Predict the structure.
Amino acid sequence: MAAEVRPRLTVLSGPSGVGKSTVVAHMRKVHPEVWLSVSATTRKPRPGERDGVQYFFVSDEEFDKLIANGELLEWAEFAGNRYGTPRREVHDRLAAGEPVLLEIDLQGARQVKESMPDSRLVFLAPPSWDELVRRLTGRGTESPEVIERRLEAAKVELAAESEFDTTLVNTSVEDVARELLALMAVE
Ligand code: ADP
Ligand code: 5GP
């Protein structure tokens, strides 16, 4: 009997500002067929972000409902906002044999590993702490207070690297995008 071919769920995590969105955007430019789950969040859109593209932007009440109705595969509070992965499309894609990519925080990654032990957790690490601070500050999308909060969270995330199956260091966006794609390939 042929070995069962399982579609793979890949989770990409790493500290805020390390370059997760940049890497995923580059990978999808080269490989538009790769599907990335769109999360729901109570955070306000940044300039250029569109509802249903980067996130589904929802109110606190709407987020409460998503939780109550069991519609989220996982969710977490991160630096003052809530974020969650809608369950339905992830399951449908995996059932159809397609690889699925989630870009979520450490708490979410742990929940996914717990409920779906076959998933692969990928940690995106910065080349150095100073470079992480430079990237987060240089992005220019958050106030100094929010940057401070995210850097506090980053210390916790960096300390959890060993919980992940693989670490990729984001020195070159192109290289990391290629490595991530290779990890996502269904075996
Ligand atoms: P995250 O999604 O992890 O919070 P972003 O993708 O928004 O991070 O990246 C944060 C900042 O770092 C952005 O300004 C982005 O252009 C920059 N950046 C991302 N990857 C690299 C890299 N490999 N080298 C230099 N700058 C990068
Ligand atoms: P940002 O506000 O910078 O877009 O995202 C902040 C953090 O929330 C990042 O670490 C990002 O990976 C994470 N995040 C985004 N979507 C989700 C989600 O659906 N669930 C969880 N747990 N974290 C998420």
In short: The chain has one domain: 9-184.
